[in-house]
Amino acid sequence: MIDIKDKGYCPTLEEIGEYIGNPVFMQFCSDMKAQYDCVGKTEFSSCSWMPGWNVKFKKAGKNLCTVS
Length: 68
What we know:
Blueprint: H1 13-20, H2 23-36, E1 39-45, E2 52-59, E3 62-67
């Protein structure tokens, strides 16, 4: 199991999906890529409210959606 707050290790999308433990997450990611032809990028957020890894879906440099 990954440590979602470990900034030193960037988890894969599959590892994040396993951490979440809900198959809807992977289906959502797949649908976002297919429907909007966008890229899912894993980025670390160090905001003081809830630090950890996020998946950001971007197209043409614009953020379509962030999953925290």
